[in-house]
Specification:
Blueprint (H helix, E strand, L loop, with lengths): L24 H8 L11 H12 L9 H8 L6 H9 L8 H12 L2 H12 L9 H9 L3
């Protein structure tokens, strides 16, 4: 019979210096708005950017920003992306950087990488285009 105490997360829960620590339901709800499912039309870089923007609005006493990110990241995922994290194995990620890198490696496909590389290497400044508009167009890689 499975034991609920044996169910382990891929994320190692960070040590928290706070004597009382609780993630309030409104934090979880705030993070889960616009959650990432891992669909082909979703951009994982944009997802991480939105997630970090939300995390940067939260400060908890005696808790590092990395600990906040590690605790809240699972709430920003759903469907295939949530399944990926659950299937990663127990205690695999001990730092935010390692988790973010693994997330991008999984969901930023080789096809997208090739598309972006091609776009960058063939980018041309149009004749009647201002430098500012060319820069904006260059930065807008989807």
């Amino acid at each position: 019979m499975p034991d609920a105490n044996g169910v382990l997360s891929g994320i190692v829960r960070p040590d928290v210096a706070a004597t009382h620590f609780e993630l309030k339901p409104q934090f979880k709800q705030f993070i889960s708005q616009g959650s990432y499912a891992g669909l082909a039309n979703e951009n994982p870089v944009d997802q991480l950017s939105r997630f970090l923007e939300k995390c940067n609005t939260m400060k908890l006493t005696n808790m590092s920003s990395d600990a906040i990110k590690l605790c809240l990241f699972p709430f920003s995922l759903r469907d295939d992306a949530k399944e990926w994290l659950n299937d990663e194995g127990a205690n695999k990620y001990t730092t935010w950087d390692s988790l973010a890198k693994a997330f991008l490696l999984k969901f930023f496909s080789q096809k997208k990488t090739s598309k972006h590389r091609n776009y960058i290497s063939t980018f041309c400044h149009n004749e009647d285009e201002s430098l500012n508009n060319a820069w904006k167009r260059f930065k807008w890689i989807q």
